[in-house]
């Protein structure tokens, strides 16, 4: 019994120290923070964007021009800002949502058909759906999180080929894509997901 208690205590201490280390690391990310706004020219016609370009949620289908940049099959919208070097970091509030997808994509991503989210197709994302978190890797990876993320941080290191996702409030790493091959501009990608009987109506909110 004593060994069990000691083991539990040691595990708790290790978890606390790990959280402190990740928390310190995440504070450093602020020097790489970028101001991301949503690009209405890329938004699926069923998405509503706030005037300041910081929020997106599902809405009624609108009659919008079918310009080359716009997603027409998948409920996605991209950020206006593109990145082709260095590190960049942004945070997204997902509080109150039961379905969301966040990440980055190559600029050349297919906008007009169904997309299989995977690094092979130039898309690096994490999704939350039905109380389950998954990294859309090759193959997809189920992520057994200990808490429900309220705000997610996304860090990209272009030269290192790294895309990492963090639970901001828990100061915990959610998942890292490593060894990524980047050779064109990257854009932040967002999906607020579908509504389920009135649930998941909250917007995704880019902060600050």
Automatic annotation (TrEMBL):
- Which parts of the sequence belong to the B30.2/SPRY domain? 16-208
The record's listing under PANTHER family reads: E3 UBIQUITIN-PROTEIN LIGASE TRIM (PTHR24103)
Task: Output this protein's name.
Answer: Pyrin
Species of origin: Liparis tanakae
Question: What broad taxonomic lineage does this protein's source fall under?
Answer: Eukaryota, Metazoa, Chordata, Craniata, Vertebrata
């Amino acid at each position: 019994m004593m060994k069990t208690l000691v083991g539990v205590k040691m595990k708790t201490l290790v978890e606390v120290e790990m959280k402190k280390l990740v928390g310190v690391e995440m504070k450093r990310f602020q020097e790489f923070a970028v101001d991301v706004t949503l690009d209405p020219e890329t938004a699926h016609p069923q998405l509503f964007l706030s005037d300041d370009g910081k929020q997106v949620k599902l809405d009624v289908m609108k009659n919008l021009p079918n310009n080359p940049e716009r997603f027409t099959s998948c409920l996605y919208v991209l950020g206006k800002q593109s990145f082709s070097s260095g590190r960049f970091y942004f945070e997204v509030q997902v509080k109150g949502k039961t379905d969301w997808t966040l990440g980055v994509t190559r600029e050349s991503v297919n906008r007009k058909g169904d997309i299989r989210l995977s690094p092979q197709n130039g898309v690096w994302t994490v999704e939350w759906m039905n109380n389950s978190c998954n990294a859309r890797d090759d193959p997809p990876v189920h992520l057994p999180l200990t808490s429900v993320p309220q705000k997610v941080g996304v860090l990209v290191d272009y030269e290192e080929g790294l895309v990492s996702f963090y639970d901001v409030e828990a100061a915990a790493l959610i998942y890292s894509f490593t060894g990524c091959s980047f050779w064109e501009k990257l854009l932040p990608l967002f999906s607020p997901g579908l509504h389920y009987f009135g649930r998941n109506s909250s917007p995704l909110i880019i902060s600050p």
